[in-house]
Amino acid sequence: MATRSICVFCGSRKGVLPSYEAAATKLGQAIAARGWRLVYGAGDVGLMGAVANAAQAGGAETFGVIPEHLVKWEVGKTDLTRYVVTETMHERKKVMFMNCDAVLVLPGGAGSLDEFFEVLTWRQLGLHEKPVVLANVDGYWDPLIGLMQHVVNQEFADASVLNFITVCSDIESVVQALS
Q: Three-class SS string for the chain?
């Protein structure tokens, strides 16, 4: 069965390279083209805005979740199919995760890392078996991948933790991994 709801964790900023925003736009278009639903942080700025606007333009269903304290900062995108305001960041992550079939991480900052590590930890603990995909656009996540290997090499995690992550270098391979 094809993945229906894709949770996308990504930056509320665009980043330095134009390829980051291009990848977010291409991902939104791909989600719409396949009839999938976008589940994301409900922001209308940065990569979040790019993926959501592209998904909406293609007719995709969009499910956004934002904590009250970020509504102004991340410019809460209220024209989504479903727009949910939570009290806390933790509640946001939980609602997003509970409403998806797979998790995809585009380039982002500390928030995206927090979201990635939380779902990875849940997977490591056997709390879910949903795919976790890193979109390694222009090698953005190379240092993270190196860190994960270091954690394994230093025996703070079993090598199996690396099998819980699928790393893709472009949106075509991301879509294939999610299909």
A: CCCCEEEEECCCCCCCCHHHHHHHHHHHHHHHHCCCEEEECCECCHHHHHHHHHHHHCCCEEEEEEEHHHCCCCCECCCCCEEEEECCHHHHHHHHHHCCCEEEECCCCHHHHHHHHHHHHHHHCCCCCCCEEEECHHHCCHHHHHHHHHHHHCCCCCHHHHHHCEEECCHHHHHHHHC
